[in-house]
Design a protein that fits this description.
Blueprint: E1 3-7, H1 14-24, E2 30-34, H2 41-46, E3 57-59, E4 65-67, H3 69-79, H4 90-105, H5 108-113, H6 129-149, H7 162-176, H8 183-194, H9 196-208, E5 232-235, E6 253-257, E7 260-264, H10 267-275, H11 281-289
Parallel strand pairs: 1-2
Antiparallel strand pairs: 1-3, 3-4, 5-6, 6-7
Length: 290
């Protein structure tokens, strides 16, 4: 048996991103079930995760359901102590829990004015003073963690921890709305944008081809500030490969990369790869062999 995770739109559901990263970044196998926000799909999905009312929610192998990302983080850390979800040092672990709790409950202005939208980035979102105050507090928390505990790597506590999963949507907001932060905070945001797991989540969101009109903002757009993906394009078969690199099933949908055509078992597999080819290890291994 395995874990099951209910999530919403990958492009817009910041809480779902946090929950998914708790599995993805720590190597815990999970089956993901998704529903479109603000549609009848969501209550139908959550009916299988009762009594949870919001995404994300996880169902454990024994059938117990856990909602809320703080509870999920603690439960997974308890069940998988080897995964390193929290820092090993007790002082760092206490600080990481504090940061997660404040993130989970706070920063209302940033959340309200700058809803996560991984499909867009803006030149100038004209942040209100209340948003700037939230950013100042976030920078303070990040600096306190990085200065004392973060010398071993790019993340808040050196190695990636639950605290980084919780602040990944904040980094996405700073990038998407081009919010003003100092050099150290900008470097931490850049680490999230370059993280292969974050890029895979964003690519899967693009492959869903969903647009929530309520998330549109009247600002001039700019290119997404993360690493530029390898250039790929839609194509017709036949392909070099006869089996999908992800499922092993026969190919039906195709893209072109580096002068060759590659096949996938469905449009979603193709499109998530089309969005950012190099972050999919199974695909890139096939490309390198071919």
């Amino acid at each position: 048996m395995t874990y099951h995770l209910a999530i919403g739109d990958r492009t817009y559901s910041s809480w779902s991103l946090r929950g998914w990263l708790l599995f993805e970044k720590f190597g815990i196998p999970v089956t993901v079930e998704t529903a479109v926000l603000y549609t009848d799909e969501l209550p139908r999905l959550l009916a299988r995760y009762a009594p949870a009312r919001l995404v994300p929610a996880m169902r454990m192998p024994d059938g117990e359901v856990v909602g809320e990302t703080l509870a999920m983080a603690e439960t997974l850390a308890e069940r998988h102590p080897e995964a390193g979800i929290w820092p090993a040092d007790p002082a760092a672990r206490a600080r990481a829990r504090w940061l997660c709790a404040e993130m989970h409950a706070g920063f209302a202005a940033l959340r309200g004015d700058c809803a996560m939208n991984l499909a867009k980035s803006y030149q100038d979102s004209a942040p209100r003073p209340e948003v700037l105050a939230d950013l100042a507090r976030i920078e303070e928390l990040w600096a306190l963690a990085r200065g004392r505990f973060g010398t071993g790597g790019p993340w808040l506590f050196g190695n990636y921890s639950a605290a980084d999963a919780f602040f990944a949507p904040v980094a996405a907001r700073i990038a998407g709305y081009n919010l003003p932060v100092g050099a150290d905070a900008a470097a931490y945001v850049a680490a999230h944008l370059a993280d292969p797991s974050f890029r895979r989540w964003r690519a899967m969101g693009w492959a869903q081809h969903l647009e929530q009109a309520a998330y549109r903002k009247p600002y001039a757009e700019r290119p997404w500030p993360g690493p530029a993906p390898l250039e790929a394009s839609l194509a017709e078969g036949p392909s070099v490969n006869s089996a999908c690199p992800y499922s092993g099933r026969p190919v039906t949908d195709f893209l072109q990369l580096q002068g060759k055509v590659w096949g996938f078992c469905n449009a979603f597999c193709r499109d998530k790869t089309l969005a950012d080819p190099e972050v999919w290890p199974k695909f890139m291994a096939m490309v390198q062999e071919g």
